[in-house]
Specification:
The chain has four helices and three strands. By secondary structure, it is α+β, with helices and mostly antiparallel strands. α1 crosses α3.
């Protein structure tokens, strides 16, 4: 079967919702005033790895925020574990990726202003 299984998609949606809550709960100050949004999650077929895509506004703070997320990945995994303990046997490893589609939108808006 091609694509993601229903289980993968359900788990991905749940992780996206939970990670968004965890990140929002830390407040913008934790991310140097940047707005961090979980734009998507992809889960491996065995549910052991979750790729968490985040968009960061303003994009100038992206490097610092990504560094923060990656340095604290164990903390995030622990907090996620507390939320998904009932649904998942194992808490997936989290891998953060920068979703640059927001940069693209910003770039288009800049071009339109010219």
């Amino acid at each position: 079967m091609e694509g993601e299984s229903t289980r993968q998609l359900k788990v991905a949606r749940e992780i996206q919702k939970d990670m968004a809550e965890i990140i929002r709960g830390k407040g913008m100050a934790a991310y140097d005033g940047a707005l961090v949004t979980v734009s998507g999650v992809k889960v491996s077929p065995d549910l052991s790895v979750a790729k968490v895509y985040v968009s960061i506004f303003p994009s100038a703070k992206a490097d610092a925020v990504m560094k923060n997320l990656n340095e604290n990945v164990r903390t995030y995994r622990g907090e996620l574990g507390a939320k998904v303990a009932k649904q998942l046997r194992i808490v997936p490893e989290l891998v953060f990726y920068l979703d640059s589609s927001l940069d693209y939108v910003e770039h288009i808006e800049e071009l339109l202003k010219k």
